[in-house]
From TrEMBL:
Keywords: ATP-binding, Iron, Iron-sulfur, Kinase, Lipid biosynthesis, Lipid metabolism, Metal-binding, Nucleotide-binding, Transferase. It is found in: Cytoplasm. It comes from Planoprotostelium fungivorum. This is mevalonate kinase. Belongs to the GHMP kinase family. Mevalonate kinase subfamily. Signal peptide: none annotated.
Length: 264
């Protein structure tokens, strides 16, 4: 196929952005959006200029997690202006801002690709240190569209979020194969929900075999970036659009995300 007509426009939008990172998972419900949004908040608390783009067309969850469920995209002279996080200077863009939340979206491939390319060519991010892409689970049209649109913009690579159970890990193998086929570097694997933080005493109970994920990463020759425990206080914070780093700075989940950020 030839060069897409909007390719130059996308490159122009992406060039002022230093780091572009995709967040992937083989399965839904493993905490991909949670990890992507927590990373964006943690980065902005470190003084970085951050954007997060939610390309999960059928199930966008970033608006709710980021506390802007009814955010509206403003069309300005410079392009589409992202919605601002209520507390931190994080720019949020989501396909969810285009649809009403209670209507199911059933879209086929080319329409999805066009919408994603439009987000990339129209959004005025301005200069960012980091742009994180929250994607749907698995490997589908959305991933191919993002990766091909970023082809000339030097994306850093992909973070793969999983839990330590066997089923979830099997799908991670597919994610790794996908990234290698499509030529996107794998920055590493993150194990989410590795243990449960006791609400009474903060003691942690392991949920899955403790080294399953790390040895899986080693077998596939990709970095293992660390484990994030499940903390009920964080679940509540994320569901109600609060920043868990501000609301629960002493949570082991928050500490784990900070530790992973040091390693990326
Ligand atoms: P995915 O994007 O993989 O479908 P989500 O990020 O939506 O998954 O997470 C599913 C649910 O689990 C959400 O309610 C979220 O708040 C919760 N959750 C995920 N990871 C954690 C964690 N480490 N601690 C507490 N709750 C979590």
């Amino acid at each position: 196929t030839g060069v897409q007509p909007d390719a130059a426009k996308i490159a122009l939008r992406m060039n002022p952005i230093s780091h572009k990172i995709l967040v992937l998972s083989g399965k839904g419900g493993v905490g991909k959006s949670t990890v992507a949004t927590q990373l964006s908040l943690a980065l902005s608390r470190r003084g970085k200029k951050v954007g997060i783009l939610d390309v999960d067309i059928c199930g966008p969850s970033v608006p709710q997690i980021m506390g802007v469920p009814r955010g509206e995209i403003i069309n300005s002279n410079w392009g589409w202006l992202p919605v601002k996080h209520p507390v931190h200077p994080v720019s949020v863009m989501s396909v969810g801002f285009m649809n009403s939340t209670d209507r199911a979206v059933i879209w086929r491939g080319p329409k999805k690709t066009n919408l994603i390319r439009q987000f990339l060519s129209e959004t005025f991010w301005s200069k960012l240190d980091y742009l994180l892409f929250d994607t749907p689970p698995g490997t589908s049209d959305e991933h191919i569209s993002v990766v091909s649109a970023l082809k000339n913009s030097n994306p850093d690579g992909a973070l793969i979020v999983t839990t330590g159970n066997g089923l979830s890990l099997t799908t991670v193998g597919k994610e790794i194969t996908f990234c290698r086929k499509i030529g996107i570097p794998i920055l590493g694997i993150i194990e989410n929900m590795s243990s449960l933080v006791c609400p009474c005493c903060d003691e942690q109970s392991e949920l899955y075999p403790s080294d399953a994920c790390a040895s899986f990463a080693e077998k596939f020759g990709v970095p293992f970036l660390g484990k994030i425990p499940l903390d009920q206080r964080v679940t509540v914070a994320m569901d109600t659009g609060q920043c868990p780093h501000c609301a629960h700075p002493d949570s082991p989940t928050v500490a784990a995300v900070e530790h992973i950020l040091d390693r990326i």
